[in-house]
TrEMBL record:
InterPro entries: Cro/C1-type_HTH, Lambda_DNA-bd_dom_sf. It comes from the Bacteria. Keywords: DNA-binding. This is HTH cro/C1-type domain-containing protein. Residues 6-60 form the HTH cro/C1-type domain. Signal peptide: none annotated. It comes from Lactobacillus nasalidis.
Length: 117
């Protein structure tokens, strides 16, 4: 999810992988690895990307879509994490409640970051 979000951010800025790599001080291959999900960026790179794209670090870590209307990035169904009547799964495995709580904390931090901007 992070990779798709990074690709979308980069494309929205009209940047090539090479241009983003130069901006972040990494190789083009590193950008490619992040975008296809082979590797995950370190926190220092996430901080730099947040500055380059004007988004919060938490939104990058959570892989939030650039535009909720972007059909390429959104799942098509809207589910509230607080809806306990639903059983959330990932690749066929139930998502533990602890993971959902982590996601909720990330979202609260992101909302706080956006308010502070």
């Amino acid at each position: 999810m992070i990779g798709r979000y990074l690709r979308a951010l980069r494309r929205r800025r009209g940047m090539s992988q090479q241009e983003l790599a130069e901006e972040l001080g990494v190789s083009k291959q590193t950008i490619s690895n992040w975008e296809v999900g082979r590797k995950v960026p370190r926190m220092k790179a996430v901080e730099k990307m947040a500055g380059v794209f004007g988004v919060s670090k938490n939104s990058i870590l959570a892989g939030l879509p650039v535009d909720p209307e972007d059909k390429d990035l959104s799942a098509g169904k809207v589910v509230d994490l607080n809806d306990n009547s639903l059983r959330l799964t990932y690749k066929g495995h139930q998502v533990p409640r602890e993971y959902i709580e982590i996601i909720e904390k990330l979202m609260r931090c992101d909302i706080d970051d956006r308010r502070a901007q």
